[in-house]
Amino acid sequence: MIFKPTDNLDKAFRAMRAFMVLIVIGSLSVSMYALYQNAVLSARMQDRVYILSNGKAAEVFSSSRKENVAVEARDHISRFHQLFFSLDPDEKAIASTIKKALYLADGSAKKQYDDLVESGYIAGVISGNVSQEVTIDSVQVSVTTAPYLFRCYATVQIIRSTSIVIRNLITHGQLRNTARSDNNPHGFLIEKWETIENRDIKIENR
Question: For 108, left (φ over 0), alpha (ψ -120 to 50), or beta?
Answer without folding.
Answer: alpha
